[in-house]
UniProtKB/TrEMBL annotation:
Domain of life: Bacteria
Organism: Fontibacillus panacisegetis
Record's protein name: GntR family transcriptional regulator, transcriptional repressor for pyruvate dehydrogenase complex
Molecular-function annotations in GO: DNA binding; DNA-binding transcription factor activity
Keywords: Coiled coil, DNA-binding, Pyruvate, Transcription, Transcription regulation
InterPro entries: GntR_C, TF_FadR/GntR_C, Tscrpt_reg_HTH_GntR, WH-like_DNA-bd_sf, WH_DNA-bd_sf
PROSITE patterns for the chain: HTH_GNTR
All residue ranges annotated as the HTH gntR-type domain in the record: 9-77
Recorded coiled-coil stretches: 115-145
Length: 238
């Protein structure tokens, strides 16, 4: 008898499914503003990162619109069930394939972020770097991984290219999985590697701060190629 893989539904998938069901049933109307991330977190009894992942997936598939600084709204024109049937990254289980997409996507994203970032973008990136520093001091792996994901999503947001931002948002669930898997290979509880990773993120931030688009792109490529080399030697496929 072949072994059967039983998968448990993740928290963000449950939140996403409930909100989508409320939209389809008309409980949430097109154009209606959703509660804040904090309020949704309290309502669902989950962490804010779980809510953000669910909202990112709903945005990527066209059900909601996130207005920078203005809140989250149900899209006025809802996608059809056919157009929403497949997330572009949903069925890609190969970590290496996801990473290859990230290298090309994020190098351009970082370059645009360096050109177009505003004070609010810089403040967000600075806050995330501070969270990374705090996570390192506390040796908090979960906090570090979450900050890592938020950093890459914040760069996409700072590009002020809606399509790039949407593509990165649709990758957010996979980022959660791939970052955790690659860290397992990279760190092996070696704190010096954690410090090196923090320094790489700091360097990317400073390149964006200096509006050096070429350097920002090069640094994020180098950062991701290092992860690719780890995967090459560690042979993680899923």
């Amino acid at each position: 008898m072949q072994p059967i893989k039983v998968e448990t539904e993740k928290g963000h998938e449950i939140v996403q499914r409930v909100i989508l069901s409320q939209i389809e049933e008309g409980l949430l109307q097109p154009g209606q503003k959703l509660p804040s991330v904090v309020d949704l977190s309290t309502s669902f009894g989950v962490g804010r990162s779980t809510i953000r992942e669910a909202l990112s997936a709903l945005k990527a598939t066209g059900w909601i619109d996130v207005k920078h600084g203005g809140g989250t709204f149900i899209n006025k024109v809802l996608p059809t069930s056919q157009s929403n049937s497949r997330d572009p990254f949903e069925e890609s289980e190969n970590v290496r394939e996801i990473l290859e997409v990230r290298i090309w996507l994020e190098s351009g994203s970082a370059a645009f972020a360096a050109q177009r970032r505003n004070d609010q973008d810089l403040e967000r990136l600075k806050q995330i770097i501070e969270q990374m520093e705090q996570a390192l001091e506390m040796n908090d792996t979960q906090m570090s991984e979450h900050a890592d994901i938020e950093f890459h999503l914040a760069i996409a947001a700072a590009s002020h290219n809606e399509l790039l931002n949407t593509l990165m948002s649709s990758l957010s669930c996979k980022l959660t999985e791939t970052i955790g898997k690659t860290r397992q290979l990279w760190f092996y509880e070696d704190k010096s590697s954690s410090i090196l990773l923090l320094k790489e993120h700091q360097s990317i931030y400073h390149a964006i701060l200096a509006q050096n688009s070429e350097l920002a792109s090069q640094l994020i490529q180098a950062h991701l190629y290092k992860v690719a080399n780890v995967l090459k030697h560690g042979a993680i496929q899923d």
